[in-house]
Amino acid sequence: MSDFEHVFEQPPEGAAADWTIPQNWSAYTEVEHQTWNTLYERQMKILPGRACEAFMRGLDALDLNAGGIPDFEIINPKLQALTGWTVVCVPGLVPDEVFFDHLANRRFVSGQFIRKPDQLDYLQEPDIFHDVFGHVPMLTDPDFAAYMEAYGKGGQRAASLGMLPNLARLYWYTVEFGLMQEAGELRIYGAGIVSSATESVFSLEDPSPNRLGFDLERVMKTLYRIDDFQQVYFVIDSIEQLKRETLQDFGPIYDRLQGAEALPIEAVLPTDKVFTHGTQAYAAKGGRFAA
Ligand code: PHE
Ligand code: CO
What we know:
This protein is of the alpha/beta class. The chain contains 13 helices and seven strands. The strands form two sheets. Strands 4-3-6-5-7 form a five-stranded mixed β-sheet. The protein binds phenylalanine (PHE) and cobalt (II) ion. Cobalt (II) ion binds at residues 1, 126, 130, 134-135, 176, 191-192.
């Protein structure tokens, strides 16, 4: 997950100039491997039929169920052969330009640590389960792989134009929390959803959130929350649609967005294609902070 914030200005001690650190796979403990397995098995009870085919295929192609935390030396040759992507470790959130530069070069950055056994359900910072289980399977899909590279390049441009908040919303509502139409129903492709047992069910089945058709410019105007289940999910027709729409030059869109007001998170507009007009009951009750 990236909300484009960072803690350090310079690579910390032990990190390379591009901010990467070794995965140091042999240093993971038995408890840490067991945490991966627990999370993996829990998701595998939930995701078949809910996660999109590209995600399920990617899990399989990379053999992420081999047992324990994946060793990047083993998954990277497979991923690279499929789409040219690799996954590298970083010590935490990295500066925007570092993040974009990795994406533009088909390198996905991952946390090295795994959550503690008492934090299985919620954590603030992305760990290796979120980053690898959640993000990496989709990178085996050629269209998604192309989208993510283009996003990295687009990030460099958006930064220079002061449009990063808008581009960050696109990332949030696609890469992290995207839904798609597939096989006559809604399916998950967002990494923030597939790596969460509770949101995997909530995002598709709860009556609370809005589910709206993906509209690039509308998404780039929509506020989002980082601390709870989403109040709105945007639905793409296909990964190919996502790639196609984001291939266009964003210059004219950025011009229009400059003066535009952000849209409230729960807005439903007359122009929206509505899959679900949510009750917003979950958010109204205080979400995960409810008494
Ligand atoms: N097409 C965008 C631009 O012209 C770049 C981009 C591609 C951004 C894909 C996000 C995702 O800036
Ligand atoms: Co993520």
